[in-house]
Amino acid sequence: MISRIASFLLLAFAAVVSSNAQTPDTLRAPGMHLGVVDTIIVIGNTKTLAYVILNEMTLKRGSVVTEEAIEYDRNRIYSLGLFTRVDITFDTLGTVKFLTVSVSERWHLIPLLIFGFRDGDVKKPYFGAGFLHNNFRGRNQKLYASLILGYNPSASFSYADPLLDRERRLMFSTGLSFERIHNLSQEEALAYGDYEEQHYNISASLGHRINIYETITAIFGFRVITVSDYRPGRTVSTSGRDAFPLATLTYTRDTRDLSEYATRGSFMNFYATSNGLGLAAVEYARFGADVRTYLELPASLTLVGRLFGTAVAGGEVPPYGRAYFGYAERIRGYFSTVLEGEDQCGGTVELRFALLKPRVIHFTAIPLPPEFVYWRFGLSLTTFADVGTTWFRGQSLTWNSFSSGYGGGLDILLPYSFIVRLQYAWNDYGRGQFILDLRRPI
């Protein structure tokens, strides 16, 4: 009971922090002014076009330069996922003051041997092969294709262009996929036995980058879902096959310094999805929000808060459309426990201490391709508290409806944006568990 109260107090504090999310102006702490930049020079980008880098920077010609602003932009360039090393220096030559952005590029054309764990669960291994071009035409365009076997086998192809039209700041993406998914609903499995779902998806999106922090995106798609063993409720259609169009509108505001492991800034995402569009048996809408904030504190500490939730309206929601904890979303302390419902809400508070701030190591002892001579590492201690619940429409919520957990651990930041989390958590009944989490942290 004490742990549950503590978790809710921490969650209440996270709500206060999130409601005061930092703006871009407050991200760049005053510091000592180094001068006003006259020009920006980009070097080391043998494949990447310079505008891809410049578009991520808050510092422009005429900007006041501070050490804080340089470090913020350095991390934003890292967040592109295109470089193993990023350095920014401010220099004066005569009367001209200029920034030099020096980068070392990652390996962009990558044949993939794929191995991992679905939803970060070591009991659900998958393996396969694929192909990734991480920087097609030097414009940060992504081409990806894969064939995966093991747990939830799949095949997919996707293409994304983050700046289809530079003048209008338009983004575009498209993709198609097939996946055979082991039933997510524990309630359905316990009542009537397990089954599998076949998911066929095709989608396209068009977005507008309002400014360096904000985007709005419209996504249109078509889904076909069939089940291996039909029972009423597993699909909306009595044939055991649901086929329907869908449309999603999203708004995102992201001022984080480093998306893979932020230390300051905020992230907000709001979306609304219409499934069916009045043209199919499936006919329900889903709304959601995800708000995160990162406060940089003295002594290499970072306070992280997150609040998120999703709710439905309209017609019947089959098991494949429900909200779950125990898969993509987890409550540590109940890491493998599946909670399901039509609606969901949750929150997290983390306090991180950087034992080793992310730094680049230059390997020269052995000959390596240029894409692999720079390796970035980091190490942080964390303490955390999680809370969350799911429910169906018509059910009432009480304090006892929520599950919570707390604990601590070690976050290991590895090259190429790979992060390993080793943690121990207790739930609100005092039961503990070790956690190996390979998902990207909040």
Describe the 3D structure:
With 442 residues, this protein is mainly β. The chain folds into 3 domains: 23-105, Roll (Ubiquitin-like (UB roll)); 107-254, Beta Barrel (Porin), CATH 2.40.160; 294-442, no CATH class. The protein contains 5 helices and 23 strands. A hairpin with a 3-residue loop joins strand 21 (403-414) and strand 22 (418-427). The protein starts with a helix and ends in a 5-residue tail after the last strand.
Overall number of strands? 23
Largest sheet: 16 strands, antiparallel
Principal-axes geometry comes out as globular
**Helix run count:** 5
Unreliable sequence segments: 1-9, 18-22, 24-29
Q: What is the domain total for the residues?
A: 3
For the termini, the CA-CA separation is 26 Å
Q: What is the string of helix and strand elements?
A: HHEEHEHEEEEEEEHEEEEEEEEEEEEE
Structural class: mainly beta
Rg measurement, Å: 23 Å
Describe the oligomeric state of these chains in a short phrase.
Answer: single chain
* Strand order across the largest sheet: 6-7-8-9-10-11-12-13-14-15-16-19-20-21-22-23
**How large is the share of residues in beta strands?**
over 45%
Q: Percent range for helical residues?
A: 10-25%
The residue-averaged pLDDT reads 88
Topology readout:
Elements: H1 2-19, H2 24-27, E1 35-36, E2 39-43, H3 50-54, E3 64-65, H4 67-78, E4 83-93, E5 96-105, E6 109-117, E7 125-136, E8 141-150, E9 154-165, E10 170-182, H5 186-192, E11 196-209, E12 214-227, E13 241-254, E14 265-275, E15 284-297, E16 301-314, E17 323-325, E18 339-341, E19 343-362, E20 374-391, E21 403-414, E22 418-427, E23 432-437
Parallel strand pairs: 2-5
Antiparallel strand pairs: 1-3, 4-5, 6-7, 7-8, 8-9, 9-10, 10-11, 11-12, 12-13, 13-14, 14-15, 15-16, 16-19, 17-18, 19-20, 20-21, 21-22, 22-23
